[in-house]
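During the second half of the funding period, the structural biology subgroup turned its attention to how the target accommodates small molecules. The most pressing case was adenosine-5'-triphosphate, which had performed well in the primary screen but for which no bound structure existed. We therefore specified the complex as follows and requested a full 3D prediction, including the ligand pose.
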Amino acid sequence: MPTIEFENVTKVYGEDTVALDDVSFTISEGEFVILLGPSGAGKSTMLRVLNGLTDPTEGTVRIGGAEISGNRSEVGMVFQEHYLIESKSAFGNALTGALSRNGLLRSLLGLHSDHDKTTALESLQTVGLLDEAGQRAESMSGGQKQRVGIARALVQEPEILLADEPVASLDPKAAREVMRYLKKAATEQDLTTVTSLHQVNIAREFGDRFLGIRDGEVIFDGDADDLTMEEMDRIYYGGEAGDESLKNDPTGTDSVPSGAPGANAAADGGDGT
Ligand SMILES: Nc1ncnc2c1ncn2[C@@H]1O[C@H](COP(=O)(O)OP(=O)(O)OP(=O)(O)O)[C@@H](O)[C@H]1O
């Protein structure tokens, strides 16, 4: 479980879309970090840079002290759209995580080692789906599919786990369940984990540390206690919502500015289950 370092990382798309603007931070081994911020803040770009899916325009990203370049097999990724093969079983989908170890041809031919198969079953067990190993993805709920997505990332035997809005399309109860399994997997396997999340009140329950991103800059770095209403206001509204956000807070108790993604979840079904 290596450290992650961003040193003066800037990412510019095209001529002038600055998605990350001179970003520097270090994530310690085994930390569970949640990226918060409004749409377009740069969260996905941060994850893509970390995964080697896109190169920074300037600056350096290091994993375990080594500068990264290209796609990284030690980085497992969970996507919002789980990208499962619907006609395959949970087990078959989990096994595709071994692709980076085995190469495309062996995977296409279904030539999996006993180690791969055992790892796939263990990963399904980690996400509570061992009994559903033979069930086709197409007959699974959205939450179950996302848990298969986590299992697939674990089969890759990563040291770092990334997730881009892994529960964005789920109801609050299913979202919490998926987050519980993501955290369980990270804890059991000592993975350094970075996930973006829109549902702020769910994020607060699971994150060790939060990075607040706005306009490509990290403007907040702290734990759940530091994540006050004022800080949320600053992250999501640039501090301009002021007392209005407090006045309109639908929960009355939850430190989530009204209008922030997921702010209503606590009021309409975020029952803490
Ligand atoms: N491939 C791309 N080409 C051009 N511009 C892009 C590309 N990907 C992202 N951007 C732009 O970079 C900025 C940051 O986008 P990014 O997707 O990283 O934000 P985000 O915080 O993940 O947003 P969301 O929560 O909506 O996914 C935005 O202005 C976006 O339009």
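Two results from this model are relevant to the next phase. Residues 205 and 224 are 8 Å apart (CA to CA). The radius of gyration is 19 Å.
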